[in-house]
Amino acid sequence: MITKGIPVEKRIIIVKTYLNGGQSIRAVAKELGIHYITLWRWVEQYRVDGEEGIKRKGYYRRPWNRSSKEIEEKVVFLKENNPSCTVRAAKEILEKDGIKMSIKGIWSIWKRYGLAGFIKEKLSSDDFRKYISIPPETEEGVRRAREFVEKGNLKEASKILNQLSSCCRSDILEKIPNRFLNSKRKFEKLSCLFGKIPYSLYRKKARKLRETFVKKGYLYSAIRTGLSEATALEWLGKPVEQLGLIQELKKSLTVNKRRVNFPFIFTLNILEGIAYAILLEPRKAILSLRKCQRFKRNFYNASVPYDIAVLYSFLGYYREMGDLIEMALPMADVDEKEILMSTLSYVKSNEGDYKSSIRILKNIRSGDDTITLLIKAQCYIGMGRIEQARELAERGLLKARKMGIKDFVSTASLILSEVNSAIREKRKARLLLSRYIDLLKKSNLNRVVVLREVILNRSAIPEGAEKNRTIRLALLLRNAAYSNKISDYRKAYQFANRYNLLGFFHRLVLLIPDPVLMMLEKGKDTGLPRALLNLPVFRKEIPVYSVKFLGHLVVYKNQKYLRDHPVRKKTQAASSNKFSFERSISLASRVRRKSSNGVKLSTKETSFLIYLALSKNKSISLDRIYKNFWHDSKHSSRNLAHLLVRIRKALRLPSHYLYVKENRLFFDCYFTTDYGEYTEHLAQAKALLLAGEWAFARREYFRAFKLFRGKPFRKIYDDWSEDKRLEILFAYETEVLSFAKELRARGRRYEAEKLLKKAKKIIPYLDFRLKTG
User: Fold this and answer.
1) pTM above the 0.85 mark?
2) Which pLDDT score, from 0 to 100, does residue 215 have?
3) Residue 273 pairs with which residues in a beta bridge?
4) Nearest to 604 by CA among 645, 546, 643, 554
5) How far, in Å, CA of 342 to CA of 344, rounded?
């Protein structure tokens, strides 16, 4: 009897003929020349799903020899109540209760319920849904439930889902209210929401579900839920509570049965090691790390070595971290490879192999996310491109998502402090380091706090903290700064070289530059790249200018207020005429009051100076300069030459620091601006607000807006200045209105009005917008 060639339409007619007639199923099947079991299957398909059931291929049928629902639940409870239970032990228990079942039968039931039979190639510590096998009945049930969801019948859909053995990989659960779902479906739904809802709410829901499972005796599900709760506690920055929960979960497991409980024991040890590393207890973290290393034979996929590599990073073990990542790469799929490549790039940046790090990042699809931008910023610092590093750090903060935002703020603020230190802005660098210590302590990021305190030379470090290699390196460099000995510097350098920490060392010497300066004075080789040694922090002769144009123009040279030449000339004349000391001071103060605006520059010269200061590169095309400033002039080159002479004279800048060569303008000095400082504060403020740290964010916002002293580019009307003025004012307006709205929402109306009152003086049309808007 051949039934494969019967069209679907004819099958539907046959089923309807049987249902509408009075004959038995065997009689109808015999008349039509098909097997009665085939007809019965079509009738069942029609009864369940109508004509769609017959049209659909691959209809799932429950096997005829499957155990009853009651026996299945009993078999499942044996594993749920004792996570270390083996199939042989379960078989013996069932036999005592008079239930005969093969080892294969028990294994199959546990596999369907997601308690065994994991996919080795997808084992993971972060998400159990990845490695659980999906039985055909689950796919069929999800399909049927989705049809009810589309019709708006959520209650009927939940009934189908609640009857399934597992439902781990379907986003359909997110569409069903919790009141319709049983405990297991609630947890599976919660797993889909990680990173989508606040971690505090996620932790609260996970804890409630865990307590429910414990009361029911479902310890296996309780441990699985507890792991999700522990991960949420890690993101919430609560390592002490996390460790307490981990110890509680470990009591439910038989440690000597590592093979049975591998996913649980491995994940618990990883989370425990990270928590100890965060609390700066590296000895205990290393002990957890060694326990994880015993599972090397379980390296079936990229996830397991990657998880160990993450723990290595918390301890500063970048050499071992890189080896594991390279081991994991051949085993990774496309999505995992992206994460591993990004991590490898991070390792290379800390090793000092900046070209390899940037080359790896170019091959990553997500090349503009926060992590990628911060890694690039670290590389650019080592390559001496500090302005690009500053810009990337700010962009990274602005692109940051809520997940891990405090870690990003910590990393970005460290990069910005390194950038400021590189251009001899030591005070700003130290402020950036110290400003976030309270926030980091609040988040229990002790490892980062101790590193900053070592750099700032504040307090004694906790016992055992030197086991962390990055902290150990900072201590060695700090000791070299104290002793002023060549041998101590070389000891720090050799330590960095031995453990592949040269990239970190390159950034660290910017914050602790004294040992390098000592080596340079004595004519000794520092081992540092030439690009790093050419930075102003190591070359005192390179001038650094701070151009403040958010108001009337103010210029500082090497942190000293730059005044016009007449001050120097008149005071010198006074002293040469043998005036009294008091009279000389009086004359100087009168002259200073008259020239309170500092350097005297024309509008064109002021505009050009700001243009130079805002440039991100150390050279600019002459064609671009001519287009911006003399697009209609026939004597652009002559105009530029005269302007450069006046600029050099006003800034007291030797000609070899600002010169024209091969159709480009080169400047080997360094510029900072108050607008750059404004964007720096603003990026940090937005990130802190996203992290829920209102007090810290509010201070950063006010620091940013305080930098506006008046209208920028006042009485300057060339095309470039006009465009830049509008760009800055429009951005300022947007941020002021947004922050004022936030202040009002938090009941700070007085502060909002005060902020807007100042903004109205800078943006004339803001008052009109507030009245009409």
Assistant:
1) no
2) 93
3) none
4) 643
5) 5
